[in-house]
Write a structure and sequence with these properties.
By secondary structure, the protein is α+β, with helices and mostly antiparallel strands. The chain has a single domain, classed as Holliday junction resolvase RusA (60s Ribosomal Protein L30, Chain: A). 34% of the residues lie in helices and 30% in strands. The protein contains four helices and seven strands, in the order ββαββααβαββ. The strands form two sheets. A five-stranded mixed beta sheet has the order 1-2-7-5-6, covered by helices on one side. β5, α4 and β6 form a beta-alpha-beta unit. α2 packs across α4.
Length: 141
Amino acid sequence: MPASPSLQLPPTGSHAVALTLPLPPSINHQYATVNGRRLLSSAGRAYKAQVGQLVWLKLAQSTDRPTLLTQLQSEWLALSIRFYFTSALRRDVDGGLKIAQDALCDGLGINDNRIVETHLYKHIDKNNPRIEVHLAPASGS
């Protein structure tokens, strides 16, 4: 059974957010075509809603929330995502990037155009598939 999603807020004064979340749906399950238009599927919408709820639940417990959100909204950001799949051959990392990035940014209430640096990593963990996300100011900010 995968560990429950968690959010670690760094000590006071830090601008970074670190999250452990479930894997997003595969790219084949993220979108549906309806009347010739490509739309986010119910699985995609459910994933984004789940991430948003988890982010806000954990942020609500932080005394640094206003400062952290202000800092994230005013700086260029670097996003790092570590994907932990059950098999090396099952998924590509780029298929989960957009929905994970959108869900995180929506949950934090920031525009994803603030992300100017992206790092993706692929790992195998048969017993605990997940993503570990780190969002922080970009090195050149």
